[in-house]
Amino acid sequence: MLRWLMGGGREPQGLSEKSSVQNLGEEQIQNPYTELLVLKGHHDIVRFLVQIDDCRFASAGDDGIVFLWNAQTGEKLFELHGHTHKITAIAAFPSSGACEEKNNLILTASADRTVIVWDCNSGRQVQKVSCFHSTVKCLTVLQRLDVWLSGGSDLCVWNRKLDLLCKTSHLTDADISALVELPKNCVAAAVGKELIIFRLVVSTEGSEGWDVLEIKRLTDHQDNILSLVSVNDLTFVTGSHVGELIVWDALDWRSQVCECNTWDPSFHTVVQEIKLSQNQHEVSIQHLTSDAECVFAAVGKGIYVYNLQMKRVIACQRTAHDSIVLHIAKLPNRQLISCSEDGSVRIWELREKQQLPAEPVPTGFLNMWGFGRANKQASQTAKKVQESTTSYSLELIGDLIGHSSAVQMFLYFSELGLVTCSADHLIILWKDGERESRLRSLTLFQKLEQNDDLQLRF
Fold first, then answer.
1. What CA dihedral angle connects 441, 445, 447 and 449, to 10 degrees?
2. 399 neighbors 23 (Cβ within 8 angstroms)
3. b/e string for 347-383 if b means 16 or more Cβ within 10 A?
4. Backbone phi, then psi, for 236, in 5-degree steps?
5. Within 13 Å and on the Cβ side, how many CA atoms surround 20?
6. Coil vs helix vs strand at 422
7. Who has the most CB within 10 Å: 111, 120, 143, 159?
8. Closest C-alpha among 238, 261, 259 to residue 249
9. How many CB atoms lie within 10 A of CB 328?
10. Are 60 and 105 in contact (CB under 8 A)?
């Protein structure tokens, strides 16, 4: 484990060319993360981080190893070996409310076609499941039902004892890539371009058993679904490889808003031209997160804030990073964090701008990037909305430079700091420099007091 104080901005390898993204320089007054700890242990790409509790997290990646860490000190708690290939999914499985004993588990799936359940308190392998016909791509815990789901070529439902309660038949040529919990014991599964709604029902064969039923297939997307997020009990949102953002009713699974222009013939022509000159990832929605009011989307190299009530993008940074944005999260105090393939982690603040005279703005998610063509009626509607709403901007307030390769994702631990993982095999624990300095001073003061007490006794 290495530790140092951050000085001037250090540029990751391969990013010396001129860039159009914002730069802060060395003076980052609003950036609290001025100290960092480098956590070493992995020897391949670290793709996953999962929070276990308020002070512990797990990391996993292409080396097939799982590490458990202390988020306060950076101490390595356990090194877990059991998989023979790269890890493809990870999920925390906390103790249920009915359990008297706190028995936090984590689940890991691997390309070796196994799932392992680990005990976080002992580092012990509880059990390995090896009955899968293909790689498990995603894991989801339904805490209320005290079961967990594995998604790959089929959907399986398991209990805490690792009993297989039920499973679907082979779905399609595509595998389940993402799962999200919905109300009424339902889940939505992303399977290629399709969104399949499943419902868990109590088995007629026993009170402890479940059956899984396919309820509906939604085919609104024109390309593969990459991201899926539940906003609340009424709404969930999906994003696709070609930039479609669809807002769904979580109760009847109807599309409420579809932010795309795939119905416009001119859009298809533009898309073909774009494919020849640009990487298609430039418009793909890689990751989604949300709060009660907005959906925050990582789209190509940019980040976008979509207000659910206004049904429009209220703020964006079209070139937030030099490369594809892989992960985004909402923090307190109207702040966002994003990380990218360019190796950077950036902190943004959503600010209200001074109200300006209304101008027609393109509607639709893709129009925000200059793709597609809004019709006259849509432009008039957008103008009316703009006249009656506040304008916002995303301002860069922090630039965390420490990784030398793509930053895959991060975890926010409030006062304990921020954790990032990267293709450079490293995990970095970013710390609030002022807070750490105060804690060190307090510790030193306490030691001095103890020494004074000892001298008085003798």
1. 180
2. yes
3. bbbbeeeeeeeeeebbbbbbbbbebbebeeebeebbe
4. -140, 165
5. 6
6. strand
7. 120
8. 238
9. 27
10. no
Q: By CB neighbour count within 10 A (0-12 exposed, 13-18 middle, 19+ buried), where does 458 fall?
A: exposed
Sheet holding 335-340, edge to edge: 325-331, 335-340, 344-353, 391-401
pLDDT tens track for 59-112: 999 999 999 999 999 999 999 999 999 999 999 998 766 555 667 899 999 999
* Amino acid letter, 359: E
CA distance to 228, 233, 255, 286, 293, per residue, from 252 (Å): 17, 12, 9, 26, 21
DSSP string, 303-332: EEEEETTTTEEEEEETTSSSS-EEEEEEET
- Taking the C-alpha atoms of residue 416 and residue 414, their distance in angstroms, rounded to an integer, is 6
> Which residue is listed with tokens 């539940």?
230
Give the amino acid at 232.
N
